[in-house]
Amino acid sequence: MISGISNIIEHFNAVIDYTANRFEEYFYIATSNYYLRPSLILLIPIVGIFTNKKIGWILIQSYFYFLITNLVFPATKIDLTDNTLIILNIIGFLLIILIIILMNKKKISNLVYGIKKAELINKNIIASVIGISITIILVMIKGNGI
Length: 146
Fold this sequence. Notes:
Helix content is 77%, strand content 0%. It is built from 7 helices and no strands. The longest helix is centred in the last third of the chain and has 25 residues, at 120-144. The model has no long low-confidence stretch (mean pLDDT 77).
């Protein structure tokens, strides 16, 4: 968040227009550039952490599904001769899968978030749809240059 705000301020100082309203300029820079997108996406699991209900668990899980899909999309364009990048992607993928498996343990899901074992599949489907949707929306935004 701090990095995004400092980038907005640097952008503002580089293209300052003294005739325009400063608030409008800041708002235009914040909405037309990507500076705050990572911070907004990171708010998803943070809200989930502070919400000890089923929706909190879904938000946290959806963030991990978002990370998986965000890791898989660029992996299709990896140079197969770069072993370091391939190994890093595999390690990252396995760590995220491990976190998802741990979140699906009966003790964690039922004790903290009140989700019974029978509800886990439905909640995982909802979380995966949300995570994949966020990735698709970001890909569409990047593709359109928004």
